[in-house]
Amino acid sequence: MIPTSSISDSGSLKSTLKGSLYTDPAIFEREKKSIFSKSWILAGYEYEVAEPGQYISTQVQGENIIIVRGKDNVLRAFYNVCRHRGALLCQASQGKMGVIRCPYHSWSYGLDGMLVGVPNAKECRQELVRNEKFGLVRAHIGVWHGLLWLNLSDDPQPVEKQLDPEIMERFGELATFSRYSIENLRVAHREEYDVAANWKILIENFQECYHCSTIHPELTQTIPEFCTGVGTQNEIGRGGKFNQSYEAFSLSGKGTRPRIKTLLPEDDRLYYGITMVPNAFINLTPDHIIIHRLIPESVNKSKVICDWLFEPEQMAKPDFDPMDAVNLFHRVNQQDFAACEWCQANMDSKVYENGGFLVPLEQHVTRFYNYVLEAIDLKG
């Protein structure tokens, strides 16, 4: 049994995880196997594969995956691996095709994954073609509020069983989240960040606002109550109220767009942050949504893909410019990820061998710690 800390959880302090849980490659492998390979992982947007033949390719835990809309309009996910010699089938990140053709030997698969063509192999063509044994291998795919989620386990629970409880914990009901109509929005801007920190540090950082007054001047100017170190994620149904002089969640505070048309007046001038364990953060504002996709790459490196989504009718306007909104959270991202790297740099220090401390404003993060420790069988 690996202790999480040497300090007691009695009194006003609680313990963090011990340093080695952020630096030990064996722990990272256990997390990959027990968390990321068994959970629903955010992979993209349904609108990207709305038409038959449209596909996107992505990676989940080192596995290359294709998501494609079939000619029968059914959405499917396959391992992006030719059954012949293992070549990568789809090398582009997105596109449209009528058949999945291997670039190496031209083995061809239908959009339903069935092997349909084997050139120059008449001796075994009859054995191979349309034999389910030689078709592409399926991965589980789920659609939730217009977002695409992949699960690499053999028999996963429905995607809603994992994700709806996160929304219930945040709002106490599902209706508020549903009003933001993510399925109707489109990505207007994307930023990618390489962060030299363990994935858990990024989640811890997003879940607490104790650091907000120290490193986020733009964010606390926008949402003044964050200066107190009290975030809103751990309070059911509570959103962060905008500065009285601000019209929008933007760097200048100026607003040029109406609120998302499915929202209610009570949703105006509020920001909500939601952690969707293990790999997504969803940020709700009245006129746009920000979605972070967290990709652990090694025990001390993570990639974050951050998308800003808006209503397509707003994006179609000649004067549409998302950058005032983008620049606010882009700065927040840069500040957060720098802080995460400050922490990662000392996770293997003997000073942090038994971890650190959480003050009361941060102690809701222990729920995440318990989630990780239970998943990798270190709880106790």
Mind sketching the topology for me?
Layout: E1 14-15, H1 25-36, E2 41-45, E3 54-60, E4 63-69, E5 75-79, E6 94-96, E7 100-101, E8 108-109, E9 115-117, H2 122-128, E10 138-144, E11 147-151, H3 159-171, H4 175-178, E12 186-195, H5 199-207, H6 212-215, H7 217-222, E13 240-241, E14 270-276, E15 280-284, E16 289-298, E17 301-310, H8 312-315, H9 323-344, E18 357-358, H10 366-375
Antiparallel strand pairs: 1-18, 2-11, 3-4, 3-6, 4-5, 5-10, 7-8, 8-9, 10-11, 12-17, 13-14, 14-15, 15-16, 16-17
Helix pairs in contact: 5-9
Any descriptors?
25% strand, globular, alpha+beta, 2 domains, Naphthalene 1,2-dioxygenase Alpha Subunit, Chain A, domain 1, Rieske Iron-sulfur Protein, six-stranded antiparallel β-sheet, 380 residues
Task: Please sum up the structure shown.
By secondary structure, the chain is of the alpha+beta class. It has 10 helices and 18 strands.
Q: Which homologous superfamily in CATH is the superfamily of the largest domain? A: Naphthalene 1,2-dioxygenase Alpha Subunit, Chain A, domain 1
Structural class of the secondary structure composition?
alpha+beta
CATH class of the largest domain: Alpha Beta
Rough outline: globular
CATH topology (level 3) name of the largest domain: Naphthalene 1,2-dioxygenase Alpha Subunit, Chain A, domain 1
Elements, N to C (H/E): EHEEEEEEEEHEEHHEHHHEEEEEHHEH
Integer count of domains: 2
Widest sheet: strand ordering: 2-11-10-5-4-3-6
Q: What's the N-to-C terminus distance?
A: 8 Å
**What helical percentage do the residues reach?**
10-25%
Q: Gyration radius, to the nearest Å?
A: 23 Å
Tell me the fraction of residues in β-strands, as a range.
15-25%
User: Could you list the spans in which at least 5 consecutive residues all have pLDDT below 50?
Assistant: 1-7
Main sheet overview: 7 strands, antiparallel
